[in-house]
Amino acid sequence: MTSTLLSSDVKPARPQNLKILVIEDDARWRTLVEVQLQSAGHTVLTAADGLAGLALAAERPDVIVCDIEMPRLNGYGVLEALHQQPGLSDIPLIFLTGKTARAEQRKGMVLGADDFITKPFQAEELLASIQGVLAKRESLTRRLRHYTEEHQREIMAPWAHELLTPLNGILGMASLLESEPGTISAAELREMARSIQQSARRQQALAHKLVRHFQLQQFEVSGWNDPTAAAEARACLEEEVLGIAERAGRSADLRLQCVTAVVRVNAYWLRSAVAELAENACKFSRPGSVVVVTGRVEDGLYRMEFSDRGPGMSEEDRSSIAAFRQFGRAKHEQQGLGLGLSIAQRVAQLHRGSLTLEPGSEGAGLRAILALPLVD
Q: Do 144 and 251 belong together in one domain?
């Protein structure tokens, strides 16, 4: 079965003379695919396992065709490793496998694979899949560039694939539902619905984060100020942090202690800043390690501290917060747009407050301190 994620009326921009990387441990299938692609006029690179394939991916192929079950590093590992490297994360990947279980297909799509082909297949199926994923990727990339053409930092940042990954999951599940509607059991249908919902929620969260970023950017340019804004800090802080810890499976790790005070900030923007800092503390520390969040009044300010026991940040990184910048991406797997600290900092600055980053206790982890003015 071939899962084609694009309608037939979309034409690829680059149908000829592609560089294609084939990662397949079975020599017979590897040779067959190589011959099929070369016969269509493409340049083919081949690798016999996932690790060798990752090394060849540095040559920036236009498309990667990858088996799932392989020694040393399987196809899922290849896909996740590619997403961790900004220079390689936008290469379309098509899974090639002998498995027919829908669970394997769902996992591949949720991880961000662009298409899925099951052996045996015809050469026409493989070529159509390659053309389809390229057309889809280039169409979405053009749209992203259109909306961000005036923001050079955003264009150069490696964030576009973060928007595409959950969308690929949604389109992949929809394609499976459309291709075999009469053979899907109720249990499988529920699982596929959960996968679609998971991808859709991730897409929604990314979209909301982008909206907040551009709203704050516009506020800065216009000199926006709301002197009547006020929010009860403890209620906003506790509700937001408790919800984030629960969704991250970190409720048992959370230590939360806040005093009551009213701050000169709109409740929506206070929650936005708190959410970014609490999410970072949970995301960048190991489950089982303590995450401490406190709120207290000090020198006319409400001082909120978010402390974790994660890898922390260098002094240079702590002093260079910027939008679309992901710190330590080369060392740590990161999902997201690199906007969290920038949003929190802009919220603080717009409301005459501050965001300070310090090393955690005993030099481990990170302490983020959000200070906002109290209502007189």
A: no
Distance CA 280, CA 120 (A): 44
DSSP state of 374: B
Q: 263 and 120, same structural domain?
A: no
The pTM of this model reads 0.53
Tell me the three state secondary structure of residue 36. helix
Q: Which pLDDT score is estimated for 14?
A: 45
Q: Exposure of 325 by Cβ count < 10 A (0-12 exposed, 13-18 middle, 19+ buried)?
A: middle
Q: Token digits for 254?
A: 């959370």
Each residue of 179-206: pLDDT tens digit?
777 777 888 888 888 888 888 888 888 8
Q: Which two tokens stand for residue 23?
A: 């990662």
Residues 368, 355 contacting (CB under 8 angstroms): yes
Residues 266 and 337 in one domain: yes
Per-residue pLDDT band for 34 (boundaries 50, 70, 90) equals very high
* CA-to-CA separations, 199 to 105, 109, 110, 192, 255, in angstroms, rounded: 14, 10, 7, 11, 30
Containing 13, the helix (H) or strand (E) segment is: none
Between CA 175 and CA 5 the distance in angstroms is 6
Range of the domain at 129: 2-210
Q: How far is CA 71 from the centre of its chain?
A: 27
200 plus 305 within the same structural domain: no
Which CATH number is 238's domain given? 3.30.565.10
Amino acid at 223: G
Mean pLDDT value of segment 12-37: 84
Total count of domains within the chain:
2
Strands, DSSP E only, in the chain?
A: 2-3, 19-23, 43-47, 63-67, 93-97, 115-118, 231-232, 254-258, 262-263, 291-298, 301-308, 354-359, 366-373
What tens digit of pLDDT does each residue of 241-279 get? 999 999 999 999 999 999 999 999 989 999 999 999 999
The C-alpha atoms of residue 243 and residue 251 are separated, in whole angstroms, by 9
The span from the first CA to the last CA of the chain, in angstroms, equals 67
Sign of CA pseudo-dihedral 358, 362, 363, 367: negative
Which CATH number characterizes residue 63's domain? 3.40.50.2300
In this predicted structure, what is the pLDDT of residue 99?
Answer: 61
Within-domain flag for 217: no
